[in-house]
């Protein structure tokens, strides 16, 4: 009998599909992670698990789960999983690429425009009853039209973001671990060194995954090189940014503003200095949060589990070279 652990509450139709192939033990909360000790206990005799980024899959988990065959991660990134260790035990790791690309790019674009036009500040101003009259420079923001936009990480989400820039007559630069001339031709993007991206961009969008190469990439030295009126947007991974350096850059006027969908620690500590800054807009990791996309992500996880437990190849296995 297969046993499948689901670490967050998912809609009944998806649970029904999993129950057709085994016993399902599902954490009933959607906003609160399954406690670590409970997860470790539940996974002892599990053959599959459907998890989120909140669940850290390390040697402790693998040691506790000798029957585990597949881990379906409801995300594109998989920095919460020790993939080499898991693969060495013959366990399949899967993720959810492609299905969330467009939705995440849309959120990034929304966040960029929201910060550029100071929408959150302006809305609070109205709600607080402070709006007395029109003013020539009242909440004057920054134009996207004709701006230099730098994309750090030209993967699928980076390319989807770049496609959305075409209607704004922007100049697109990008930096990636490898150059893609087909992408440059299709999107009119210019490949540049990282320092050039920092020095010449009016907007910098980070879509990069977390790797040892990208960890703390946006540090004090990086923010010092940016334009004083630059806007920084992160829809990649929180640990790509040194948050102390970001706070300093905002306080000292090294950059103008930021918009963040991801943070180093989630949820954010309510005492975090970013929360007191008018020029920082933070949303709760909702890049892929449309109903259609979340349904597709869960369905892909269910499909991967079903395939592996039926001794077939997963649709989207994570294979590290």
Question: How would you sum up this structure, described in words?
Answer:
By secondary structure, the protein is α/β, with parallel strands linked by helices. The chain has 2 domains: 3-97 and 291-309, NAD(P)-binding Rossmann-like Domain (Rossmann fold, 3-Layer(aba) Sandwich), CATH 3.40.50; 101-282, NAD(P)-binding Rossmann-like Domain (Rossmann fold, 3-Layer(aba) Sandwich), CATH 3.40.50. It is 34% helix and 15% strand. The chain is built from 12 helices and 12 strands. The protein has a 7-stranded parallel β-sheet with strand order 8-7-6-9-10-11-12, with helices on both faces. A 5-stranded parallel β-sheet has the order 2-1-3-4-5. It starts with a strand and ends in a 12-residue tail after the last helix.
The helical percent reads: 25-40%
The CATH architecture designation of the largest domain is 3-Layer(aba) Sandwich
Q: What percent of residues are in strands?
A: 5-15%
Question: Per CATH, what is the topology of the largest domain?
Answer: Rossmann fold
Total of helices? 12
The CATH H-level homologous superfamily of the largest domain: NAD(P)-binding Rossmann-like Domain
Class from helix and strand fractions: alpha/beta
By DSSP, the count of extended strands is: 12
Q: Main β-sheet, in a few words? A: 7 strands, parallel
Q: What overall geometry do the principal axes of the alpha carbons give?
A: globular
């Amino acid at each position: 009998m297969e046993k499948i652990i689901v670490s967050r509450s998912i809609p009944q139709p998806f649970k029904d599909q999993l129950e057709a192939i085994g016993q399902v033990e599902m954490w009933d909360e959607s906003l609160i992670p399954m406690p670590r000790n409970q997860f470790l206990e539940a996974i002892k005799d599990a053959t599959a698990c459907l998890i989120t980024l909140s669940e850290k899959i390390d040697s402790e988990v693998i040691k506790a789960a000798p029957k585990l065959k597949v881990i379906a991660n409801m995300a594109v990134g998989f920095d919460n999983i020790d993939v080499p260790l898991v693969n060495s035990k013959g366990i399949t790791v899967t993720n959810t690429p492609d299905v969330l690309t467009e939705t995440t790019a849309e959120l990034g674009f929304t966040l960029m425009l929201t910060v550029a036009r100071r929408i959150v500040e302006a809305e609070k101003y109205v709600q607080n009853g402070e709006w007395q009259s029109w003013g020539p420079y009242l909440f004057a923001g920054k134009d996207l039209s004709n701006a230099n936009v730098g994309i750090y990480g030209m993967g699928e989400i980076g390319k989807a973001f770049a496609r959305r820039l075409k209607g704004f007559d922007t100049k697109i630069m990008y930096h990636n671990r490898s150059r893609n001339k087909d992408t440059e031709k299709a999107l009119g993007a210019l490949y540049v060194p990282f320092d050039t991206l920092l020095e010449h961009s009016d907007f910098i969008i980070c879509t990069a995954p977390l790797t040892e190469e990208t960890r703390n990439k946006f540090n004090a030295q990086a923010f010092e090189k940016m334009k004083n009126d630059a806007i920084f947007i992160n829809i990649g991974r929180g640990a790509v940014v040194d948050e102390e350096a970001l706070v300093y850059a905002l306080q000292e006027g090294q950059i103008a503003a930021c918009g963040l969908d991801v943070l180093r620690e989630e949820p954010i500590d309510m005492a975090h200095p970013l929360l007191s800054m008018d020029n920082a807009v933070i949303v709760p990791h909702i890049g892929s949060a449309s109903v259609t996309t979340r349904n597709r992500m869960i369905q892909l996880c269910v499909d991967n589990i079903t395939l592996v437990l039926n001794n077939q190849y997963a649709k989207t296995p994570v294979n590290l070279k």
